Amino acid sequence: MNLIGSQTTLISFNPGVVETKMLKQIFGAKGIPLDEATDTFNLATLDTFINPRNFPKYFVDLKETMSAPITLDKAQCIKLYK
Fold first, then answer.
1. For residues 80 and 6, is the Cβ–Cβ distance under 8 A?
2. pLDDT digits (tens, 9 = 90+) for 21-43
C-alpha cells in the first residue's frame, strides 16, 4: 500500500504505563492513574494536533518535542510507507 500523497493520516500512540488492576495483580507495578491517562484521546481528537501532509510530530505530555532524526528523513519515511 502506498500512502504517500493520499488523504490518509497515520496516528501511532504509546500512552506509557497506565495503572490497571491487571498491571498491579500480575506485575505489582504502578503507572499513571487511569483517570489521568487522557493524552492519547486528546491527541486523536483535538483539532490542535491536526497535522495534514506534514512530517510526523512527537509529543510528550501534549507538548511538541523533537522526534528521532530518522523520522524527519523524508526518503526513509517514503521507503517505510511504500
1. no
2. 888 889 887 888 888 888 888 88
Q: What is the enclosing helix (H) or strand (E) of 65?
A: strand 63-65
Q: Are 43 and 10 in contact (CB under 8 A)?
A: no
* Domain membership flag for residue 51: yes
pTM across the whole model? 0.52
Is 2 contained in some domain? Answer: no
Contact by Cβ (8 Å): 4, 81? yes
| Domains held by the chain: number | 1
Amino acid symbol at 46: L
Rounded to whole angstroms, the Cα distance separating 24 from 21 reads 5
Q: Which domain holds residue 26?
A: 21-81
57 pLDDT exceeds 80? Answer: no
